[in-house]
């Protein structure tokens, strides 16, 4: 029986198969896993396949046709990949429809297979998805590198910025001698490896690794000279590999490297190397572009971080220079503590103790709102202004605070600051404290044989509000031998999520347990040790001898 005759006998959706020869989509009939009919579009796809031979289709399509033959229920395989049917090994994608093709009384029942090519749609969607994924990696990397202004954190974020999404391995190197980009650097280029990021199983590369030396032909040197990302295959005989850990990198199957300079203020201060290990294909141009952008963003983040750290160190140096040691006063012992919230934190907490003349001593503890350089600068101005006002006139503490409030408001030093300011005056049997309070936590008095006592008699508004009549008042108390006065900032008593009154009770209980004959320094150390760690704190303690 000829093909035309069989086409007339078999029906597909009520139409003779012969009518399918002119269809734009591939149509075939499979019977018992062998080809019984193929239209022109089918033959154009798979070649002139003789009828009666095994069908050159994927296993999933053949299995779907078998199910249709057995059950009579149509099957659909969306976006099915077909590979190997073309000489160049190209992968093409089809929406595949399998349905019963009627019957001519033979078994197994024939199955109509229709293939609609959707390769362009699949490839376009894949490229769009990959592009979106690359943008997401870049966005997340940029965000991660800007989350901290600590250069160490920024370099660590750079190492993990592309791993594992775009690279299997990343190594961040600091240049021992930063150099200008786009020119031939002095050789050898010497680096310290400070970060290693690796996907999957652990890669044994020691970090830090100091003194790695790069030749002119090495990829890192080429990236510095080019001033941009460069990439290429790994040379198995590279001396750098021997320095960096040949065995580990060889076992991991490192086959491609890309290097990009990290440029800060037109100086290459670091370089990042990305690696492809066994199982990952070399990067496409679009992926390399993203890796280069990650390094560029790292330069911006690192520049901001280094500038911020420099300014921070300068401000911290200035702040510590202002927080001078208290004076040595016969009959008194004065001890101070300043603890920033972090190792390099600066802020508005401060203390002072200075001579007023005639044997009187001024003591002050203040807190300017904020934990930044602005707060530190305001603190410095407030402290200096207080000193000037205190020695300018023989006024009581409340009057000094009122004048300080006026200056603070008119010169816009700060909009909010609290302070305890007092005078210590020697009496016949000890010392008399006269003090005023501008919205600050009350001082604590420790007296041998008595429970701790809060000095709450003085009160008043905070500084910087500009209120015309702040109504601050003075209070005074006599201090005898053995009495200890503790003035502090809220960082000593305020815990996040806890009422400050609870913190003040804890402070009083802890201070009450301190040995009566213990040193003042030990008491300050104990109180600072048990303080919350998320805020600056100041302690100024005065003991009458």
Give the helix/strand layout.
Elements: H1 3-9, E1 11-12, E2 15-16, E3 26-31, E4 34-38, H2 40-46, H3 59-71, E5 75-83, E6 91-100, E7 111-117, H4 119-146, H5 151-160, E8 169-179, E9 189-198, E10 209-214, H6 219-226, E11 230-233, H7 239-244, H8 246-251, E12 256-264, E13 267-276, H9 285-322, E14 332-339, E15 349-357, E16 360-368, H10 373-392, H11 397-410, E17 417-426, E18 431-438, E19 444-446, E20 453-454, E21 474-479, E22 484-488, H12 500-512, H13 520-529, E23 537-544
Antiparallel strand pairs: 1-2, 3-4, 3-7, 5-6, 6-7, 8-9, 8-13, 9-10, 11-12, 12-13, 14-23, 15-16, 16-17, 17-18, 18-21, 19-20, 19-22, 22-23
Helix pairs in contact: 4-5, 4-9, 5-9, 9-10, 10-11
In short:
With 545 residues, the protein is an alpha+beta fold.
Walk me through what this model shows:
- With 545 residues, the chain is α+β, with helices and mostly antiparallel strands.
- The protein contains 13 helices and 23 strands.
- A six-stranded antiparallel sheet has the order 10-9-8-13-12-11, sandwiched between helices. A five-stranded antiparallel sheet has the order 4-3-7-6-5, sandwiched between helices. The protein has a five-stranded antiparallel sheet with strand order 14-23-22-19-20, covered by helices on one side.
- Helix 4 packs antiparallel against helix 5.
- The longest helix has 38 residues, at 285-322.
- It is elongated.
- It starts with a helix and ends with a strand.
- Mean pLDDT is 84; it is low at 1-14.
The count of helical stretches stands at: 13
Question: Main beta sheet, described?
Answer: 6 strands, antiparallel
Q: How far is it from the N-terminal to the C-terminal residue, by CA? A: 124 Å
User: Mean of the pLDDT scores?
Assistant: 84
- Spatially, the strands of the biggest sheet line up as 10-9-8-13-12-11
Q: In percent, how helical is the residue content?
A: 25-40%
Classify the secondary structure makeup into a structural class: alpha+beta
β content, as a range? 25-35%
